[in-house]
Amino acid sequence: MSLCFHTQDGFFCHETLQDYGDFSNDPDKKNQKSALNIFYGLALAEALLFLTEKAYWEWKVIYCKILEEVSTECRLGYSGMVSIKRFFYDAYSKCINGSIFDGLKMDLVSFAMELLSSGSSDEQLIGARILQKFSTNPEFSKDTLQKIGISISVIERLVEMLNWKDPQEEETRRAAAEILSELAGQKQNSLRVAGIPGVMESISSLLYTGRSSNGAADEICQRHVVLDHEHYEFSAFSHFGLRILKKLARDHDNCGKIGSTRGLLSKIIEFTHVDERWLRDEHVPDSQIRTVKLSLQVVKRLAITTGSTGKLLRREISEIVFTVSNIRDILQYGEKQSELQKLGIEILTSLAFEEDATERIGSTGGIIKELLHIFFKQQIPTGKRQKDVRVAAGEAVAMLALESKRNCHRILKLGVLHKLVLALGEPVLCIHSARILRNLCAYSEPGCFLHLKGVAAAAPTVSSKAI
């Protein structure tokens, strides 16, 4: 700045003195004085223009607070000023050092994408913050995600960041997880994310319950850096990991990749566990229930997968020892969490399409009993959600009784035939009650026919409702 003032002073002195020598006798230099006046005048004008521009931007930045205004309009939050200042000075430097068009071509999203590849952790954080804010802002998310989606290198970088375990990089890792969870919500971008090598393993690294005492060795290695960090937000990363998986699981091929990733299914099932005290508490933290709900939604999407992939997934899910027992706990204690109950019941219904899974579910202590308890339970007042749960429970019992002599025997042992016959008169329950009775009559062992005598009088109703 001082150099500009000195230069301007020099030009001013030259213009004032105009001591260029005497060229009156030299015809070749008769225009030299005018030429020098023009030259020094242009130089002085350039210096004045530069100083005017400098003063203008000082006024806009300091007094008009243009950077604060941009940060507010872009909704960049508390850290927005750091990002905006960095972007402004980079754009200004390009205008000064190169062409003004170099600066005009810059935009915040492209700038942030470049910073992700920087070797500086501070610059990476600035880039991640900008992309996080823009991708979650309804006003800018569509264009931002579209721009990120066409850059495979940026998606790869974001996936790589999911594996960062240093507590100093926690915010960057969290921002990358949130960006990917938004990116996975768009079908085309979801396929691009799933196509990145090692992406499922990276997502798996986000999931941590803290309950596994004998986890796999690779899992322990992944966590050892952050386990001693008191304030590390494991729950937030688990939430984003499940959100990404839920969105990826909308694609059939992605479901297969999730199932074939070592240890990932077991981790997802771990999150379906919820303590009895949380299920009974009306004031349970939303974050706790939201995570359980997400895990159940992921399992449900995997369980309803079609074809040979779905058959394999249902078998693997049912073979995990805690799958059915965790759902049983939700059915037993989750009266206040009807949404969780419905998701758990729908998972059981889907798993029951496989013969082996049907037997595992039926042999898990109390599962059929809890389903029937929900099916028959009448609540006052009866809301739509409670009705939906009861209907889902009836459908699950009907599926478990289908072509399963053992499950039919278990149902008959509970002594619920009279209740099933009475349920034929309830509009909400009649269809599934009829299907359960029909399956009991069709698939029970010959020795159980004495128990079914009471169904004879209701046979016409069963036949008409079960079709």
Automatic annotation (TrEMBL):
Q: Which InterPro entries match?
A: ARM-like, ARM-type_fold, Armadillo
Out of the domains of life, which is the source?
A: Eukaryota
Q: Where is the signal peptide?
A: none
Coiled coil, from the record: none
Which PANTHER family does this UniProt record tie to the protein? Answer: ARM REPEAT SUPERFAMILY PROTEIN
Q: What is this protein called?
A: ARM repeat superfamily protein
- Recorded source organism is Nelumbo nucifera
